[in-house]
Amino acid sequence: YRAKRDHRGICLFDAKMDAEMRDRRRLENALRKAVEANQIELAYQPVISTYQGRVSSVEALARWSHPVRGPIPPDCFIDLAEECGLINKLGEQLLHRACREACDWPANVAVAVNLSPLQFQSGDLLDTVACALKESGLPAQRLQLEVTEGLMIKDVDRTFRQLEELRSLGIAILIDDFGVGYSSLSYFERFPFDKVKLDKSFVDRITTSKTSQAIVQAVAGLGEKLDMAIVAEGIETKAQARLLTEYGCTHLQGYLFSRPLAPQSVRDFVSETKVYAHG
Ligand code: C2E
Ligand code: MG
Ligand code: MG
Ligand code: MG
């Protein structure tokens, strides 16, 4: 009886795995088609400078609407693109799109593009970025690149060399989701990041946790000494914005200020010349 049950268990398990594999393969094919047709779009989320109280940049966030399933979260399709070898093509496409779309906005608004660690392994990232700037005509000073600690796992020396080269074009380099996972303070000895984006989890706890408050203040102090801007992301309440400003964060981003916007809405949002004060 026991053997039979196990046997059936295995069959059911196999069938489920099989269905998941087929499902995944279908999603992968749909994604490949969408990339080939240049259908992955970008939404842009404003980042507010606390000092000036205005929008200083917007972050480009990938958006894919599957023809049948509707919107698929970027965490999901970016992973998929990384796993099935599509990320370099997609990443290049999004860089071009972001640079092109940013040309329609006021010249004091920069655009930040997220990069996958795999784009650094392709060998032609520098050319790709230079080409996106040249074709669009966007000045390098208006492009920022967001990288994550995932980048620092493999081939660290080569990675930092590539970051240096990108930076020497005049592009600001941000470290995203800082303070969780394996991100390490020693990165700052290796490379002068222009901006540090504190992970949202610190923002979530900022009003309730003394530890998060101390961490944010310490990172902000480091930023001041090392001449790095400190961005707090995922801000949803005024209380959070007030504290983060008080603790020395130089930039704020989150639903409190704006959800990610369609490219044609960025200009209006920026020119509403809203001055944010949380004092
Ligand atoms: P990320 O770069 O850390 O982006 C921040 C995420 O937080 C975005 O989710 C944004 O919409 C969300 N967010 C912003 N403000 C708030 C808030 O106040 N509350 C909450 N709950 N969430 C907020 P999204 O667009 O789903 O992107 C998720 C992740 O997907 C990104 O994290 C990034 O790692 C990745 N991603 C998105 N676009 C791209 C891309 O073009 N290339 C690459 N390589 N990765 C991308
Ligand atoms: Mg980001
Ligand atoms: Mg982030
Ligand atoms: Mg993230």
UniProtKB/TrEMBL annotation:
Residues 24-274 form the EAL domain. This is EAL domain-containing protein.
